[in-house]
Amino acid sequence: MDVSTTLARLGNAAASFLNGKHQLFIDGKFVDAKSGKTFDVFEPASGQMVAKVAAADAADVDLAVNAARRAFEEGPWSKMIPSQRAKLINKLADLVEDNAEELAQIESLDNGKPVTFARMIDIGGTVDMLRYMAGWCQRINGETITPSIPGDWHVYTLREPVGVVGQIVPWNFPLAMASWKIGPALAAGCTIVLKPAEQTPLSAIRLAQLIAEAEFPPGVINVLPGLGETAGAAIAAHPGVDKVAFTGSTEVGKLIVRAAAGNLKKVSLELGGKSPVVVFPDVDMQAAIPGAANAIFFNTGQVCTAGSRLYAHKKVFDQLVEGVVGVAKNIKVGVGLDPATQIGPLVSDEQLFRVTGYIAAGQKEGAKVAVGGKRIGEDGYFVQPTILTDTNPSMSVVREEIFGPVICAMPFDDNDLDRIAREANATSYGLAASIWTSNFGVAHKMAKRIKAGSVWINTHNMVDPAVPFGGYKQSGWGREMGHQAIELYTETKSVFASL
Protein backbone atom coordinates (compact mmCIF):
# COMPACT_ATOMS: atom_id res chain seq x y z
CA MET A 1 0.00 0.00 0.00
CA ASP A 2 1.40 3.38 -0.99
CA VAL A 3 1.25 6.16 1.58
CA SER A 4 -0.35 8.49 -0.98
CA THR A 5 -3.57 6.49 -0.62
CA THR A 6 -3.69 7.38 3.06
CA LEU A 7 -2.59 10.99 2.61
CA ALA A 8 -5.39 11.53 0.07
CA ARG A 9 -7.88 11.01 2.90
CA LEU A 10 -6.55 13.95 4.94
CA GLY A 11 -8.58 17.13 5.19
CA ASN A 12 -7.04 20.45 4.20
CA ALA A 13 -6.09 21.44 7.75
CA ALA A 14 -4.32 18.17 8.56
CA ALA A 15 -2.59 18.12 5.16
CA SER A 16 -1.38 21.70 5.67
CA PHE A 17 0.01 20.82 9.09
CA LEU A 18 1.74 17.72 7.75
CA ASN A 19 3.41 19.75 5.01
CA GLY A 20 4.64 22.37 7.49
CA LYS A 21 7.76 22.47 9.61
CA HIS A 22 7.82 20.35 12.77
CA GLN A 23 10.00 22.03 15.37
CA LEU A 24 10.63 22.07 19.10
CA PHE A 25 8.55 24.44 21.26
CA ILE A 26 10.77 26.13 23.86
CA ASP A 27 10.04 29.28 25.86
CA GLY A 28 7.03 30.16 23.70
CA LYS A 29 8.90 29.85 20.37
CA PHE A 30 9.19 27.18 17.68
CA VAL A 31 12.85 26.41 17.07
CA ASP A 32 15.05 23.82 15.40
CA ALA A 33 17.10 21.48 17.57
CA LYS A 34 20.42 22.98 18.59
CA SER A 35 22.18 20.14 16.76
CA GLY A 36 20.07 20.64 13.64
CA LYS A 37 19.14 16.95 13.78
CA THR A 38 15.76 15.56 12.75
CA PHE A 39 14.17 12.13 12.82
CA ASP A 40 11.71 10.49 10.45
CA VAL A 41 8.08 9.75 11.26
CA PHE A 42 6.52 6.72 9.57
CA GLU A 43 2.88 6.06 8.69
CA PRO A 44 2.00 2.61 10.08
CA ALA A 45 -0.37 1.46 7.32
CA SER A 46 2.33 1.75 4.65
CA GLY A 47 5.55 1.83 6.63
CA GLN A 48 6.58 4.89 4.65
CA MET A 49 7.98 8.19 5.93
CA VAL A 50 5.52 11.10 6.13
CA ALA A 51 7.37 13.79 8.11
CA LYS A 52 10.69 14.95 9.51
CA VAL A 53 10.68 16.26 13.07
CA ALA A 54 13.30 18.20 15.02
CA ALA A 55 15.18 15.86 17.35
CA ALA A 56 15.80 17.34 20.80
CA ASP A 57 18.78 16.22 22.83
CA ALA A 58 20.41 17.25 26.12
CA ALA A 59 21.21 20.80 24.99
CA ASP A 60 17.58 21.46 24.05
CA VAL A 61 16.34 19.88 27.27
CA ASP A 62 18.60 22.25 29.19
CA LEU A 63 17.12 25.27 27.39
CA ALA A 64 13.57 24.04 28.02
CA VAL A 65 14.19 23.31 31.70
CA ASN A 66 15.70 26.77 32.19
CA ALA A 67 12.71 28.35 30.45
CA ALA A 68 10.33 26.36 32.64
CA ARG A 69 12.29 27.38 35.74
CA ARG A 70 12.07 31.08 34.84
CA ALA A 71 8.33 30.78 34.22
CA PHE A 72 7.87 29.04 37.56
CA GLU A 73 10.14 31.18 39.73
CA GLU A 74 9.79 34.62 38.18
CA GLY A 75 6.30 34.65 36.71
CA PRO A 76 3.91 35.55 35.38
CA TRP A 77 2.81 31.91 35.89
CA SER A 78 3.80 31.80 39.56
CA LYS A 79 1.94 35.06 40.19
CA MET A 80 -1.20 34.04 38.31
CA ILE A 81 -4.29 33.51 40.45
CA PRO A 82 -6.04 30.13 40.18
CA SER A 83 -8.98 31.41 38.15
CA GLN A 84 -6.58 32.77 35.53
CA ARG A 85 -4.88 29.39 35.22
CA ALA A 86 -8.28 27.76 34.87
CA LYS A 87 -9.23 30.20 32.13
CA LEU A 88 -6.11 29.33 30.11
CA ILE A 89 -6.60 25.57 30.51
CA ASN A 90 -10.22 25.90 29.41
CA LYS A 91 -9.13 28.01 26.45
CA LEU A 92 -6.77 25.24 25.40
CA ALA A 93 -9.60 22.71 25.76
CA ASP A 94 -11.79 24.89 23.53
CA LEU A 95 -9.06 25.08 20.89
CA VAL A 96 -8.61 21.31 20.93
CA GLU A 97 -12.37 20.92 20.49
CA ASP A 98 -12.45 23.52 17.68
CA ASN A 99 -9.71 21.61 15.85
CA ALA A 100 -10.99 18.14 16.72
CA GLU A 101 -11.27 16.76 13.19
CA GLU A 102 -7.78 17.90 12.23
CA LEU A 103 -6.30 16.46 15.42
CA ALA A 104 -8.16 13.16 14.97
CA GLN A 105 -6.77 12.82 11.45
CA ILE A 106 -3.24 13.65 12.61
CA GLU A 107 -3.53 11.08 15.40
CA SER A 108 -4.87 8.43 13.03
CA LEU A 109 -2.15 9.09 10.47
CA ASP A 110 0.64 9.05 13.06
CA ASN A 111 -0.50 6.12 15.21
CA GLY A 112 -2.57 4.10 12.72
CA LYS A 113 -5.68 3.97 14.91
CA PRO A 114 -9.19 4.30 13.41
CA VAL A 115 -10.07 7.95 12.96
CA THR A 116 -13.56 7.29 14.35
CA PHE A 117 -12.02 6.15 17.65
CA ALA A 118 -9.46 8.97 17.63
CA ARG A 119 -12.24 11.50 17.21
CA MET A 120 -14.35 10.14 20.06
CA ILE A 121 -11.83 8.74 22.53
CA ASP A 122 -8.50 10.48 22.00
CA ILE A 123 -9.68 13.98 21.15
CA GLY A 124 -12.91 13.87 23.14
CA GLY A 125 -11.02 12.47 26.14
CA THR A 126 -8.40 15.21 25.86
CA VAL A 127 -11.05 17.93 25.98
CA ASP A 128 -12.79 16.30 28.94
CA MET A 129 -9.53 15.88 30.85
CA LEU A 130 -8.43 19.48 30.38
CA ARG A 131 -11.81 20.84 31.43
CA TYR A 132 -11.97 18.59 34.48
CA MET A 133 -8.50 19.63 35.61
CA ALA A 134 -9.25 23.30 34.98
CA GLY A 135 -11.89 22.95 37.69
CA TRP A 136 -9.24 21.90 40.20
CA CYS A 137 -7.32 25.18 39.96
CA GLN A 138 -9.59 26.82 42.51
CA ARG A 139 -9.99 23.76 44.74
CA ILE A 140 -6.42 23.09 45.85
CA ASN A 141 -6.42 23.77 49.57
CA GLY A 142 -4.54 23.02 52.76
CA GLU A 143 -6.15 22.38 56.13
CA THR A 144 -6.06 23.63 59.69
CA ILE A 145 -4.91 21.17 62.35
CA THR A 146 -5.37 21.13 66.13
CA PRO A 147 -2.12 19.81 67.69
CA SER A 148 -1.71 18.18 71.09
CA ILE A 149 1.19 20.40 72.08
CA PRO A 150 0.61 22.52 75.26
CA GLY A 151 0.05 26.18 74.54
CA ASP A 152 -1.77 28.26 71.96
CA TRP A 153 -1.07 27.33 68.35
CA HIS A 154 -2.26 28.04 64.86
CA VAL A 155 -1.19 25.07 62.73
CA TYR A 156 -2.07 24.69 59.09
CA THR A 157 -0.86 23.15 55.84
CA LEU A 158 -0.31 24.63 52.40
CA ARG A 159 -0.41 22.63 49.18
CA GLU A 160 2.09 24.09 46.74
CA PRO A 161 3.22 23.16 43.21
CA VAL A 162 6.20 20.81 42.91
CA GLY A 163 7.91 23.08 40.37
CA VAL A 164 9.35 22.10 37.00
CA VAL A 165 8.06 18.72 35.82
CA GLY A 166 9.37 16.53 33.02
CA GLN A 167 6.65 14.49 31.36
CA ILE A 168 7.25 11.62 28.95
CA VAL A 169 4.22 10.17 27.17
CA PRO A 170 3.69 7.02 25.08
CA TRP A 171 2.65 6.38 21.49
CA ASN A 172 -0.59 4.44 21.99
CA PHE A 173 -2.77 7.46 22.98
CA PRO A 174 -0.40 10.36 22.23
CA LEU A 175 -2.66 13.39 22.71
CA ALA A 176 -4.84 11.91 25.44
CA MET A 177 -1.80 10.87 27.48
CA ALA A 178 -0.36 14.38 27.07
CA SER A 179 -3.58 15.80 28.53
CA TRP A 180 -3.39 13.35 31.46
CA LYS A 181 0.01 14.83 32.24
CA ILE A 182 -0.28 18.53 31.51
CA GLY A 183 -3.82 18.98 32.89
CA PRO A 184 -3.10 18.34 36.59
CA ALA A 185 0.38 19.86 36.39
CA LEU A 186 -1.02 23.14 35.07
CA ALA A 187 -3.86 23.10 37.59
CA ALA A 188 -1.33 22.71 40.40
CA GLY A 189 0.76 25.62 39.10
CA CYS A 190 3.73 23.65 37.77
CA THR A 191 5.64 24.32 34.56
CA ILE A 192 6.31 21.58 32.05
CA VAL A 193 8.80 19.99 29.70
CA LEU A 194 6.81 17.46 27.67
CA LYS A 195 8.38 14.78 25.46
CA PRO A 196 6.08 12.86 23.10
CA ALA A 197 7.04 9.39 21.88
CA GLU A 198 9.33 9.43 18.85
CA GLN A 199 6.89 7.15 17.00
CA THR A 200 4.01 9.64 17.34
CA PRO A 201 5.18 13.25 17.84
CA LEU A 202 2.83 15.02 15.44
CA SER A 203 -0.25 15.64 17.61
CA ALA A 204 1.96 17.02 20.42
CA ILE A 205 3.52 19.50 17.98
CA ARG A 206 0.05 20.57 16.85
CA LEU A 207 -0.92 20.85 20.53
CA ALA A 208 2.08 23.15 21.05
CA GLN A 209 0.71 25.40 18.30
CA LEU A 210 -2.62 25.54 20.14
CA ILE A 211 -0.80 26.28 23.41
CA ALA A 212 0.81 29.26 21.71
CA GLU A 213 -2.57 30.32 20.33
CA ALA A 214 -4.10 30.07 23.82
CA GLU A 215 -1.39 32.54 24.96
CA PHE A 216 0.13 30.59 27.80
CA PRO A 217 3.11 32.57 29.15
CA PRO A 218 6.45 31.58 27.57
CA GLY A 219 8.13 28.64 29.28
CA VAL A 220 5.04 27.28 31.00
CA ILE A 221 4.72 24.37 28.55
CA ASN A 222 7.67 23.27 26.43
CA VAL A 223 7.30 20.45 23.90
CA LEU A 224 10.40 18.49 22.90
CA PRO A 225 10.03 15.69 20.36
CA GLY A 226 13.07 13.46 20.39
CA LEU A 227 14.38 9.98 21.04
CA GLY A 228 13.98 8.29 24.38
CA GLU A 229 17.65 7.54 24.84
CA THR A 230 18.61 11.19 24.26
CA ALA A 231 15.80 13.65 25.08
CA GLY A 232 13.92 11.31 27.42
CA ALA A 233 17.04 10.30 29.34
CA ALA A 234 18.14 13.94 29.63
CA ILE A 235 14.77 14.97 31.09
CA ALA A 236 14.80 12.13 33.63
CA ALA A 237 18.32 12.95 34.80
CA HIS A 238 18.23 16.77 34.65
CA PRO A 239 18.97 18.36 38.06
CA GLY A 240 16.65 21.27 37.26
CA VAL A 241 13.61 18.99 36.99
CA ASP A 242 11.73 18.58 40.27
CA LYS A 243 9.52 15.70 39.18
CA VAL A 244 9.31 13.30 36.27
CA ALA A 245 6.08 11.62 35.15
CA PHE A 246 6.33 8.72 32.73
CA THR A 247 3.87 6.47 30.95
CA GLY A 248 5.28 3.50 29.05
CA SER A 249 6.85 0.10 29.55
CA THR A 250 7.94 -1.23 32.92
CA GLU A 251 11.46 -1.76 31.60
CA VAL A 252 11.86 1.92 30.66
CA GLY A 253 10.14 2.95 33.89
CA LYS A 254 12.93 1.29 35.86
CA LEU A 255 15.48 3.26 33.83
CA ILE A 256 13.59 6.47 34.64
CA VAL A 257 13.78 5.69 38.37
CA ARG A 258 17.53 5.15 38.20
CA ALA A 259 18.06 8.34 36.20
CA ALA A 260 15.91 10.35 38.64
CA ALA A 261 18.01 9.31 41.64
CA GLY A 262 20.62 12.02 41.01
CA ASN A 263 18.62 14.77 42.67
CA LEU A 264 15.96 12.47 44.17
CA LYS A 265 13.29 14.07 42.01
CA LYS A 266 9.75 12.89 42.57
CA VAL A 267 8.64 10.14 40.17
CA SER A 268 5.24 8.90 39.05
CA LEU A 269 4.95 5.94 36.70
CA GLU A 270 2.09 4.42 34.72
CA LEU A 271 3.55 1.22 33.32
CA GLY A 272 2.68 -2.13 31.79
CA GLY A 273 -0.07 -4.61 32.44
CA LYS A 274 -1.20 -8.16 31.80
CA SER A 275 -4.82 -7.74 32.72
CA PRO A 276 -7.07 -10.73 33.45
CA VAL A 277 -10.62 -11.04 32.14
CA VAL A 278 -12.44 -13.43 34.51
CA VAL A 279 -15.69 -14.91 33.22
CA PHE A 280 -18.04 -16.82 35.53
CA PRO A 281 -20.58 -19.43 34.32
CA ASP A 282 -23.64 -17.31 35.08
CA VAL A 283 -22.49 -14.51 32.75
CA ASP A 284 -24.64 -12.89 30.09
CA MET A 285 -22.84 -14.23 27.01
CA GLN A 286 -24.36 -11.54 24.79
CA ALA A 287 -22.33 -9.03 26.81
CA ALA A 288 -19.28 -11.15 27.63
CA ILE A 289 -18.35 -12.14 24.07
CA PRO A 290 -18.10 -8.61 22.60
CA GLY A 291 -16.75 -7.39 25.93
CA ALA A 292 -13.86 -9.87 26.00
CA ALA A 293 -13.13 -9.17 22.32
CA ASN A 294 -13.09 -5.41 22.80
CA ALA A 295 -10.91 -5.79 25.91
CA ILE A 296 -8.05 -7.08 23.77
CA PHE A 297 -8.67 -5.87 20.21
CA PHE A 298 -9.43 -2.21 20.95
CA ASN A 299 -6.63 0.03 19.68
CA THR A 300 -5.05 -3.08 18.14
CA GLY A 301 -4.31 -4.35 21.63
CA GLN A 302 -1.90 -1.48 22.19
CA VAL A 303 -3.42 -0.60 25.55
CA CYS A 304 -1.70 -0.98 28.92
CA THR A 305 -4.97 -2.32 30.39
CA ALA A 306 -5.71 -4.70 27.49
CA GLY A 307 -7.50 -7.84 28.65
CA SER A 308 -4.80 -10.21 27.44
CA ARG A 309 -5.47 -13.14 29.80
CA LEU A 310 -8.94 -14.64 29.42
CA TYR A 311 -10.00 -16.92 32.29
CA ALA A 312 -13.40 -18.53 31.73
CA HIS A 313 -15.23 -21.22 33.68
CA LYS A 314 -15.18 -24.54 31.80
CA LYS A 315 -18.99 -24.45 31.51
CA VAL A 316 -18.81 -21.41 29.23
CA PHE A 317 -15.20 -21.59 27.99
CA ASP A 318 -15.86 -23.19 24.59
CA GLN A 319 -18.85 -20.96 23.86
CA LEU A 320 -16.97 -17.85 24.87
CA VAL A 321 -13.87 -18.67 22.82
CA GLU A 322 -16.01 -19.57 19.82
CA GLY A 323 -17.80 -16.24 20.15
CA VAL A 324 -14.60 -14.20 20.41
CA VAL A 325 -13.17 -16.12 17.44
CA GLY A 326 -16.23 -15.08 15.46
CA VAL A 327 -15.68 -11.43 16.42
CA ALA A 328 -12.01 -11.65 15.45
CA LYS A 329 -12.80 -13.13 12.04
CA ASN A 330 -15.20 -10.29 11.24
CA ILE A 331 -13.16 -7.32 12.47
CA LYS A 332 -12.39 -4.86 9.70
CA VAL A 333 -8.61 -4.35 9.79
CA GLY A 334 -7.41 -1.46 7.66
CA VAL A 335 -6.06 2.04 7.25
CA GLY A 336 -6.96 4.23 10.23
CA LEU A 337 -8.29 7.07 8.07
CA ASP A 338 -10.83 4.72 6.45
CA PRO A 339 -14.10 5.29 8.39
CA ALA A 340 -14.94 1.59 8.05
CA THR A 341 -11.78 0.44 9.83
CA GLN A 342 -12.28 -1.11 13.28
CA ILE A 343 -8.65 -1.77 14.14
CA GLY A 344 -5.61 -0.37 12.41
CA PRO A 345 -1.99 -1.48 12.10
CA LEU A 346 0.50 -1.74 14.91
CA VAL A 347 2.47 1.45 15.41
CA SER A 348 5.87 0.40 14.05
CA ASP A 349 7.99 -2.33 12.52
CA GLU A 350 9.54 -2.85 15.95
CA GLN A 351 6.11 -3.50 17.43
CA LEU A 352 5.18 -5.83 14.56
CA PHE A 353 8.36 -7.83 15.19
CA ARG A 354 7.56 -7.97 18.92
CA VAL A 355 3.95 -9.15 18.51
CA THR A 356 4.59 -11.75 15.81
CA GLY A 357 7.60 -12.95 17.79
CA TYR A 358 5.44 -13.58 20.83
CA ILE A 359 2.87 -15.47 18.76
CA ALA A 360 5.62 -17.69 17.34
CA ALA A 361 7.10 -18.24 20.80
CA GLY A 362 3.69 -19.21 22.17
CA GLN A 363 3.20 -21.78 19.42
CA LYS A 364 6.67 -23.17 20.03
CA GLU A 365 5.79 -23.61 23.72
CA GLY A 366 2.60 -25.51 22.83
CA ALA A 367 -0.11 -22.88 22.42
CA LYS A 368 -2.68 -23.41 19.67
CA VAL A 369 -3.92 -20.61 17.42
CA ALA A 370 -7.73 -20.55 17.45
CA VAL A 371 -7.80 -17.63 15.02
CA GLY A 372 -5.29 -15.21 13.49
CA GLY A 373 -1.63 -15.56 14.33
CA LYS A 374 -0.12 -14.01 11.22
CA ARG A 375 0.97 -10.75 9.67
CA ILE A 376 -1.41 -9.26 7.11
CA GLY A 377 0.24 -8.40 3.80
CA GLU A 378 3.77 -7.18 3.26
CA ASP A 379 3.20 -3.40 3.53
CA GLY A 380 2.64 -1.64 6.80
CA TYR A 381 2.48 -3.17 10.25
CA PHE A 382 -0.76 -5.16 10.20
CA VAL A 383 -1.32 -8.31 12.23
CA GLN A 384 -4.39 -10.53 12.54
CA PRO A 385 -6.48 -10.43 15.74
CA THR A 386 -5.26 -13.56 17.51
CA ILE A 387 -6.60 -15.99 20.12
CA LEU A 388 -4.28 -18.57 21.68
CA THR A 389 -5.63 -21.60 23.53
CA ASP A 390 -3.90 -24.44 25.42
CA THR A 391 -1.83 -21.81 27.19
CA ASN A 392 -0.50 -22.01 30.74
CA PRO A 393 1.17 -19.64 33.21
CA SER A 394 4.69 -20.84 32.35
CA MET A 395 4.46 -19.51 28.79
CA SER A 396 5.94 -16.14 27.87
CA VAL A 397 2.71 -15.14 26.10
CA VAL A 398 0.87 -15.51 29.42
CA ARG A 399 3.54 -13.94 31.65
CA GLU A 400 4.77 -11.01 29.56
CA GLU A 401 3.08 -7.96 28.08
CA ILE A 402 2.69 -8.38 24.30
CA PHE A 403 1.00 -5.04 23.56
CA GLY A 404 -0.84 -6.32 20.53
CA PRO A 405 -4.18 -7.97 19.61
CA VAL A 406 -3.26 -11.32 21.18
CA ILE A 407 -5.28 -13.00 23.94
CA CYS A 408 -4.44 -16.16 25.87
CA ALA A 409 -7.59 -18.13 26.77
CA MET A 410 -7.53 -20.50 29.75
CA PRO A 411 -10.40 -22.41 31.41
CA PHE A 412 -10.87 -22.82 35.14
CA ASP A 413 -12.93 -25.41 37.00
CA ASP A 414 -13.40 -23.89 40.40
CA ASN A 415 -15.88 -22.04 42.53
CA ASP A 416 -13.36 -20.96 45.17
CA LEU A 417 -12.96 -17.21 44.69
CA ASP A 418 -9.64 -17.16 46.52
CA ARG A 419 -8.11 -19.73 44.16
CA ILE A 420 -9.50 -17.94 41.09
CA ALA A 421 -8.11 -14.63 42.36
CA ARG A 422 -4.69 -16.19 43.00
CA GLU A 423 -4.54 -17.31 39.38
CA ALA A 424 -5.66 -13.90 38.13
CA ASN A 425 -3.09 -12.22 40.40
CA ALA A 426 -0.23 -14.50 39.31
CA THR A 427 1.59 -11.77 37.43
CA SER A 428 4.19 -9.11 38.18
CA TYR A 429 1.68 -6.53 36.95
CA GLY A 430 -1.41 -5.11 38.62
CA LEU A 431 -2.91 -2.43 36.42
CA ALA A 432 -6.43 -3.62 35.67
CA ALA A 433 -8.85 -6.55 35.55
CA SER A 434 -12.44 -7.23 34.58
CA ILE A 435 -14.99 -9.57 36.15
CA TRP A 436 -17.96 -10.88 34.18
CA THR A 437 -20.90 -12.32 36.12
CA SER A 438 -24.60 -11.82 36.79
CA ASN A 439 -23.98 -12.27 40.52
CA PHE A 440 -22.99 -8.90 41.93
CA GLY A 441 -22.10 -10.46 45.26
CA VAL A 442 -19.47 -12.55 43.50
CA ALA A 443 -18.39 -9.52 41.46
CA HIS A 444 -17.72 -7.31 44.46
CA LYS A 445 -16.07 -10.11 46.46
CA MET A 446 -13.72 -10.73 43.52
CA ALA A 447 -13.07 -7.00 43.13
CA LYS A 448 -11.66 -6.98 46.67
CA ARG A 449 -9.43 -9.96 45.92
CA ILE A 450 -7.96 -8.71 42.64
CA LYS A 451 -4.65 -6.86 43.06
CA ALA A 452 -5.06 -4.16 40.45
CA GLY A 453 -5.55 -0.41 40.34
CA SER A 454 -8.74 -0.65 38.27
CA VAL A 455 -11.34 -3.42 38.44
CA TRP A 456 -14.23 -3.35 36.01
CA ILE A 457 -17.44 -5.35 36.40
CA ASN A 458 -19.14 -6.45 33.18
CA THR A 459 -17.08 -3.96 31.19
CA HIS A 460 -13.42 -3.29 30.36
CA ASN A 461 -11.11 -0.37 29.50
CA MET A 462 -13.31 2.29 31.11
CA VAL A 463 -11.73 5.52 32.39
CA ASP A 464 -13.02 8.92 33.44
CA PRO A 465 -11.20 12.15 34.40
CA ALA A 466 -12.75 12.02 37.89
CA VAL A 467 -11.66 8.43 38.61
CA PRO A 468 -8.06 7.69 39.72
CA PHE A 469 -6.03 5.46 37.43
CA GLY A 470 -2.80 3.58 38.14
CA GLY A 471 -1.36 0.24 39.10
CA TYR A 472 -0.20 -2.15 41.78
CA LYS A 473 3.14 -3.97 41.74
CA GLN A 474 5.23 -3.36 38.61
CA SER A 475 2.42 -1.46 36.91
CA GLY A 476 3.56 1.80 38.42
CA TRP A 477 3.67 4.41 41.15
CA GLY A 478 0.95 6.95 41.86
CA ARG A 479 -2.47 7.65 40.42
CA GLU A 480 -3.46 9.81 37.47
CA MET A 481 -6.84 11.50 37.05
CA GLY A 482 -9.17 12.41 39.89
CA HIS A 483 -7.95 14.53 42.79
CA GLN A 484 -5.08 12.06 43.28
CA ALA A 485 -3.48 13.48 40.13
CA ILE A 486 -3.28 16.89 41.80
CA GLU A 487 -1.38 15.27 44.66
CA LEU A 488 1.25 14.06 42.18
CA TYR A 489 2.11 17.65 41.31
CA THR A 490 1.95 19.32 44.73
CA GLU A 491 3.98 19.42 47.93
CA THR A 492 2.49 19.72 51.41
CA LYS A 493 4.00 22.37 53.69
CA SER A 494 3.21 22.40 57.44
CA VAL A 495 3.20 25.75 59.28
CA PHE A 496 3.35 26.06 63.11
CA ALA A 497 2.58 29.49 64.60
CA SER A 498 2.96 30.02 68.34
CA LEU A 499 0.27 32.41 69.58
Oligomer: single chain
Query: Which blocks of ≥5 consecutive residues have pLDDT under 50?
Result: none
Walk across the major sheet and give the strand order.
14-15-16-13-12-18-19
CATH architecture grouping of the largest domain: 3-Layer(aba) Sandwich
Share in helix: 40-55%
Radius of gyration: 23 Å
CATH top level label of the largest domain = Alpha Beta
Contiguous helical run count:
17
Derived structural class: alpha/beta
- CATH topology of the largest domain, what is it called? Aldehyde Dehydrogenase, Chain A, domain 1
Number of domains: 2
Write a structural description.
α8 (about 200-215) links the parallel β8 and β9. The model has no long low-confidence stretch (mean pLDDT about 95). The strands form 6 sheets. This protein has a 7-stranded mixed β-sheet, with helices on both faces. It has a 6-stranded mixed β-sheet with strand order 9-8-7-10-11-21, with helices on both faces. The protein has 2 domains: about 5-270 and about 475-495, Aldehyde Dehydrogenase, Chain A, domain 1; about 275-465, Aldehyde Dehydrogenase, Chain A, domain 2, CATH 3.40.309.10. By secondary structure, it is of the alpha/beta class. About 40% of the residues lie in helices and about 20% in strands. The protein has helices spanning about 5, 10-20, 60-75, 80-100, 100-110, 115-135, 175-190, 200-215, 230-235, 250-260, 285-295, 315-330, 350-365, 395-400, 415-425, 440-450, 480-490; strands at about 25, 30, 40-45, 50-55, 145, 155-160, 165-170, 190-195, 220-225, 245, 265-270, 275-280, 310-315, 370, 385-390, 405-410, 430, 430-435, 455, 470-475, 475, 490-499.
